[in-house]
Amino acid sequence: MNQLTITESLAAPANRYQTHEVRNQAQPASGFNAFSNDNVLTAAIQREAPWAAERCAALGAVAGDEQVQELARLANKHNPELKTHDRFGHRIDWVEFHPSWHQLMTLAWKHEVPNLTWRTKEEGGHYARAVLSYLWNQVEQGTACPTGMAYASHAGFSVEPALAIWAQKSLGTQYQFSRSEVGDKPSVVIGYAMTEKQGGSDLRETQTTARFSHSANYHGATAHWYELTGHKWFCSVPQSDGFFTLAKVDGGVTCFFLPRTLPDGSFNRFFVQRLKDKAGNRSNASSEVEYAGTLAIRVGEEGHGIREILSHAHLTRLDFAVGSAGLMRQALTLALQHTTTRSAFGTSIAERPMMLNVLADMAVEVEAATLFALRVAKATDGMDKGNEHEKLLARIATPAAKFFNCSRAPAIANEALQCHGGNGFIEENPMARLYREAPLNSVWEGTANMMCMDVRRAMQRTPETRDALLAEWKKLAGQDARFDQLAANTERLIAAALTDEYLARPMTEAIARTIQGAELLQHSTAEVSNAFFTTRCGLMGSDWGSHFGTMGAGVGSEAAKRIVQRANVFA
Length: 571
Hints:
Blueprint: H1 3-11, H2 39-48, H3 53-63, H4 66-77, E1 81-85, E2 91-96, H5 99-110, H6 116-119, H7 125-136, H8 144-157, H9 164-169, E3 190-193, E4 209-218, E5 221-236, E6 242-249, E7 252-259, E8 270-275, E9 286-299, H10 305-341, E10 343-344, E11 347-348, H11 353-384, H12 388-420, H13 430-437, H14 448-461, H15 463-474, H16 481-497, H17 504-523, H18 526-535, H19 557-567
Parallel strand pairs: 3-6
Antiparallel strand pairs: 1-2, 4-5, 5-9, 6-7, 7-9, 8-9, 10-11
Helix pairs in contact: 2-11, 3-7, 4-5, 7-10, 7-11, 8-10, 10-11, 10-12, 11-12, 11-17, 11-18, 11-19, 12-13, 12-14, 12-15, 12-17, 14-15, 14-17, 16-17
């Protein structure tokens, strides 16, 4: 060996891969309870549904479990695959999933995420189930689509005697992925297929047609079967056991329920054309389907299909408002854990003054969104009990919450990603998945404009809804002058928007902010409510810019620290 080789050998490290020490990396956001460690959620359940606290804590532990978080990653890495035919050439129209999807679905059904409302006899069923959905949306959002649809579907099953078997099976807690007939299944997964190419959200433009076929006994009740011909441009969860759908009978849009497997065990004529290649929500299959002599059971009267399906829409909209709030909470949790366990310039990132402003600002937004969604859930409980005030309030607050929470989620996701820096944009980091997921709820089940139009239409058609809204705020008069001014400004904007559709969006945003303010005033801390009123009321001299982290001197750093401490599930 020459001298050069000996020198090089002496200088080389003992292990080729010991080129540097890995340090100052953020800790994973795991090993916590997303319910028990959340001050806002635990207080909310204690107020409205204390009987559900144990259930919520059990699911909260699931959300913070590292192995479950790995299932969420795998389910989104390995996308569903459409299998139109089996290996022998038979048409099967089926979807294959990575095992992680089925493990997640099993957990969701076990913890009653789809159906606690309908299973419990306790008061506050919608409220408690909303908290479960909020927690599940911190586990994995793709599976939150079938849990939400299963929740809403019970409203349709309960009004049609022929679907009693489906109402019964929708209460099951044992998930089963199979094509067995409904009578042989322990539970069911439900899909919806409404939108067509030409009509989009305007369901009056439905082209699919239905022709009466026959009436027959179906699990102990008479079902009226029709043959459907047409297509659906968006069909969520095409591997479901059954679907609510729309078709025209003699020109009148009618609601139908379509079982994938028929009573004799044969497969219905339900043709999956392709799966959508979505920007986010990758674990969940969305599809385009065609009907050709497809058998479906009529739900309700002929020509009343849109009215019938709107009875479900209230629940799906509520679930989207809750789900977006849950996604925002997960984004905040990830941002808090990253910034508190990674250092820069001599302190943790979270302790840097500008980052403190950002985190506190996000925490205020997330708490406001959470309380807003839960207020709608409470109104839904009241509506089911025949409370007229809650029914009228829900008619306005539900589309307003769906509009506002779902529209705010992308802003929170963007800011949370920035808290991570480049690490947040890497697919190994769950933050990247949330970033792609965040816009979705705002376009499913009605875009922002549709929700604002619905708020305006409700007040025009039923003026009592406006009275219920104003009564909700007047009971808080005198508690905070800024809230009083916000409520007065919103009332003036409502009056203007009722005569000018151009103002429907600013009106709906003002309604959302006022409901949020009312909830914070009643159920949050002085620091959080003060930060909200100082920054988000659009009042003269408001201390807030157009991005998170721009709270002015009206919210001092000590108050910001207490806000962040309140929001930190790892503290």
